[in-house]
Amino acid sequence: MNKSKAVPYLLIFFLLLLKVSAFRILIFDTKSVWHIAFVEFPVWALLLALVLLIFKKRIWLAAWIYSFLVSGIFFAVTLYSRYYTTIPSYYDLQQATQSSTVGTTILLLIHPTDFLFFLDVMLLAIIARKWKEPPRAPKLKYAALGLAIVSAVTTVYAIQQPIIDVSYFAKENGYAQSQLVQMYQQANETAHASSTSLSAKELEALKGNEYVPVNNHDTFGLAKGRHLFMIQVESMQNFVVGRSLNGQEITPNINALLQESAYFSNVFQQIGAGTTSDAEWITNTGLYTEGMVPIVNKLNGSQVPSLAQTLKGHGYGSATYHADDIEFWNRDVLYPVLGFDEIFSNEQIPEIKQVGYGPADEVLMDFALDELPRQLDAYERIYSNIVMMTSHTPFVLPEDMQYLNLPMEYEGTHVGHYLQSIRYADEQVGTFIKELKEQGLFDESLIVIFGDHSGIHGSPLSYEDDVLLKDFLGHSYSMKERYTIPLLFTGGGLFDAVEMDRLGGQVDIMPTALALLGIEHEKPLMGHNLFQYEKNLLGMRYYLPGGSFIQSEQLYKAPGAKLPDMLLDIKTMEKRKKNSETKKHTRDVQKVLEYGDALLKPYIQD
After folding, report:
1. Transmembrane residues, as ranges (predicted)?
2. Which pTM does this prediction carry?
3. What is the DSSP letter of 316?
4. Bridge-based pairing state of the strands 549-551 and 554-557
5. Would you say 252 and 470 are in contact if contact means Cβ atoms under 8 Å apart?
6. Could you tell me if 222 and 516 are in contact, meaning their C-beta atoms sit under 8 angstroms apart?
7. CA of 515: how far to CAs of 407, 489, 509, 524, in Å?
8. Measured between alpha carbons, how far is 163 from 181 in angstroms, rounded to an integer?
9. Which residues are within 8 A (CB) of 4 and not within 5 positions of it... i.e. 6 or more apart?
10. Superfamily of domain 200-603
11. Is the dihedral of CA 446, 519, 597, 384 positive or negative?
């Protein structure tokens, strides 16, 4: 093929090289020509070559279709990573119908420059109209063979590397290769199977504690015989509790409730890609999630030794309330495997006063309260799991649901919307508690109130929002503010303004509640009774790079797609130098996570 005939093909591949380079620079902040030319580009170029060979004659159309698809992938990855600060897998991109969080904030995530990924698509469309169809390229198959060899070498090398963190793995081994390796590992169950086994004593030793049998805990049975209410508040972070804006409390009802509660102010979220549904899983099983894959999408239908299942053996009837479509995040699978006796979704909860994803929380709470008299007649004791969701991103509420009189600088901002939505959620919690007290149930119940995950994070936060947060907090917004959630245990006569700042995670909620109720769980739990143990060691996947850990004295953020690793003092969030303890905790948390994977194995699909 002479040089003039090769020009169209060189142009097509050159445009792809520019796009891949832009992707690497934007997502991974890469400066390495080697990674672009010999790791990332060959796989995308090979796929392009194969497409051109298959189409044979309609080269411009083939190139345009392929370029459009790749642009769409790069565009989606950019928005996803901008919001979640992690790199999505092929599995995440398949979940577009489930990713409501990104869907609703899409306009906040997009930067005008993101559309430059489609610049070559437009150029190819123009060129195709003005340039005649190029002839077939006999030597293209040789180029494809060379690309295939390079791609095979880099992919085989990548397969040999452990995926501790997907984002960092993709940075080092190529985004395309990272997807191929994940597909390979999913197809090969032995690649991700874990046989790690730890006794309760060994698990507590890794956390830095001496194991004590649960029935010997000081708080064991403190709430024995009581009803249980678990209230999961959408997007509620701990930094709003006790704070005011222009003399207005953000959470006045929760603040008042603290006077008769045990409040844990240093509890970290541990969700993965499943966000709210992951929080439901963790708090109802005491087990970790997989991280990169929403646990609800991998359940095999087997009954899980859950909170509801254990309580059932002690005379409890259970009900769960979530005013959304039961099939959203596969809750039609999740709730049965958790063993709830009664399941209420938007099919039963009145679809009135719609806000965001369904009926407002006040409708949800009223419905749950209306069910109580019947349930109290039907069951010896009741367990109600209530999942609030009105305070879901993008946090925009109708004027009649806004309780705060925001200062002018907060009006219309992401932070302002967030504070308004949390204030609304707090009002509904307060109304629910007031009703329990009026019905005489507060003194007969253990009520657990907690946030599911952070709401303030990612690209929706503008420079203006950062300034407002710093003014609101009195210091810069840190990972601690982002990842800590409030956790309250309350009920008539149980506690008197107890606040504890010992480290906790969402895996600790179920074992702490069961200990208070005086009930032992027969199966292993990843968490422990927060009233009993002072030390902790937590793993978090997805929102922190793999290899990260949260420990009672320090938080270690492993290297990710763009940023280097970082060790922080857990109290001050100031940087510290890595030491021998850092390496030990990294190894120990890996053991914890592997043990968590082993406990999950019977309940998820291979």
Report:
1. 32-54, 61-81, 101-128, 140-159
2. 0.83
3. E
4. antiparallel
5. no
6. yes
7. 44, 12, 10, 14
8. 9
9. none
10. Alkaline Phosphatase, subunit A (3.40.720.10)
11. negative
3-state secondary structure 330-397: HHHHHHHHHCCCEEECCCCCCCCCEECCEECHHHHHHHHHHHHHHHHHHCCEEEEEEECCCCCCCCCC
Backbone angles phi, psi at 505, to 5 degrees: -135, 170
Antiparallel, parallel or unpaired: β 445-451 and 244-245:
unpaired
Bridge-based pairing state of the strands 342-344 and 316-321: parallel
Nearest alpha carbon to residue 589 among 325, 310, 158, 268:
268
Q: How far, CA to CA in Å, does 600 sit from each of 163, 225, 594?
A: 19, 30, 10
Nearest CA to 299 out of 317, 286, 281, 321 is that of 281
Contacts of 371 (CB under 8 A, 6+ apart): 319, 342, 344
Of the two residues 137 and 10, the one the predictor is more confident about is: 10
One-letter-per-residue 3-state SS of 530-588: CCCCCCCEECCCCCCCCCCEEECCEEEECCCCCCCCEEEECCCCCEECCCHHHHHHHHH
Amino acid at 483: Y
pLDDT above 90 (res 456): yes
- 3-state class (DSSP) for residue 517: helix
- Residue 488 pLDDT more than 60? yes
Residue position matching structure tokens 């395309």: 176
Three-state DSSP string of 119-175 = HHHHHHHHHHHHCCCCCCCCCHHHHHHHHHHHHHHHHHHHHCCCCCCHHHHHHHHCH
- State how far the Cα of 457 lies from the Cα of 579, in Å rounded to an integer: 30
- Number of Cα atoms under 13 Å in the Cβ half of residue 582: 18
Distance, in Å, from the CA atom of 551 to the CA atom of 582, rounded to the nearest integer, reads: 10
Phi and psi dihedrals of 463, rounded to 5?
A: -60, -40
> Cα dihedral sign for 499, 505, 508, 509?
positive
Confidence of residue 190 (pLDDT cuts 50, 70, 90): very low
Q: Dihedral sign, CA of 283, 285, 291, 296?
A: negative
Specify whether the CB–CB gap between 108 and 459 falls below 8 A.
yes
Here the tokens at position 200 are 């309760």
Angle, vertex CA 480, rays to CA 254 and CA 278, nearest 5: 75
Whether the CB-CB separation of 482 and 265 falls below 8 Å is answered with no
CA distance 332 to 350: 19
Q: Which residue has the tokens 């009926």?
A: 359
Q: Mean pLDDT, to the nearest integer, of 168-188?
A: 83
At which residue do the structure tokens 């437009």 appear? 122
Average per-residue pLDDT in the chain?
91
How many CA atoms are closer than 13 Å to the CA of 151, on its beta-carbon side? 22
332 Cβ contact list (under 8 Å, min separation 6): 326
Closest to 276 measured CA to CA, from 87, 48, 117, 455: 455
Question: How confident is the model over 330-354, as a mean pLDDT?
Answer: 95
Indicate where the chain has its CATH 3.40.720.10 domain(s). 200-603
Sign of torsion, CA 280 414 105 273?
Answer: negative
